[in-house]
Amino acid sequence: MAEIVGAYFTSHVPAIGGAIARGDQHNEYWKPFFDGFPSVRRWLAEVKPDVAVVFSNDHGLNFFLDAMPTFAVGAAKSYANEDEGWGLPVYKSFEGHPALSWHVIEELVGSEFDITTCQKMLVDHAVSIPFELAWPDAAEWPVKIVPIAINTVQFPVPSPKRCLALGRAVGRALRSWQGNERIVVIGTGGLSHQLEGERAGFMNPDYDKFCLDHLAADPDALTQHSVEEVAQLAGTQGIEILNWIAARGALGDVPLAEVTRNYHIPISNTAACTLVLEPA
Ligand code: DHB
Ligand code: FE
């Protein structure tokens, strides 16, 4: 039987890729953020996942404002990255796991989630940066991926409640998969940040702490806010917390232990956080 070994959550700020490319991990600005990763890497080396189910949002590389699925599940053999215009290297491609993707898709549709199925899909910095952070020296990625994109970009975006329900349905699908893969769940983006408008630069450590303190033991607490309220509390891009909420849902309603947590403010315009949860 497949096993969900836990979840790794991290911010995906593109500037992290610039810091890696320049070798700035140890300078004054970046060190407090990168210091959060040795423990993540040790944990991954211990739990040895074969597959990653990755909840993230596409920022316009794959979907744009003209065609924006609320929830999209990749079912491709491979997923390439492309230049997004941030001045970053084009990152390694990812190997897919089409059979597991189709199982997740069938179970989600069976659970009445009206998802979009993508047999061709690019992945952007929201996938590549968390992988570069987790496996910095990998010649190729040690896991296959099932990418799940949540629209956090163009309103109307789904509610925290709906994203938690989606994640729980994904978790049920993973637990009913007959393969014997070891599955890590990944949630990327956030925490609080706003990139545009009058509140550009807005961050909210109080709301971030509320999310971090409830995510493991009481994720339903995060569903008390509408997504409009989350945009107020976390900033318009801080609604990327939806990816974390969905990833948390996939772990199921089991007691969880916090393996590591590193909150650091700011990276670029973002209150950055890295977190690992595993079944207790
Ligand atoms: C930044 C953060 C993001 O989540 C993103 O997708 C792009 C930029 C930032 O803080 O610069
Ligand atoms: Fe983002």
TrEMBL record:
Record has Oxidoreductase as a keyword:
yes
Which GO-annotated molecular functions does the record name?
Answer: dioxygenase activity
Q: Which UniProt keywords apply?
A: Dioxygenase, Oxidoreductase
- Keyword set includes Cell inner membrane: no
Record-linked SUPFAM superfamilies: LigB-like
Instruction: Give the Extradiol ring-cleavage dioxygenase class III enzyme subunit B domain ranges.
Output: 6-270
Pfam families for the chain? LigB
Signal peptide per UniProt: none
The UniProt entry, under InterPro entries, shows: Xdiol_dOase_suB (IPR004183)
Q: What is this protein called?
A: Class III extradiol dioxygenase family protein
Whose protein is this, by species? Answer: Novosphingobium cyanobacteriorum
Q: What is the lineage of its organism?
A: Bacteria, Pseudomonadati, Pseudomonadota, Alphaproteobacteria, Sphingomonadales
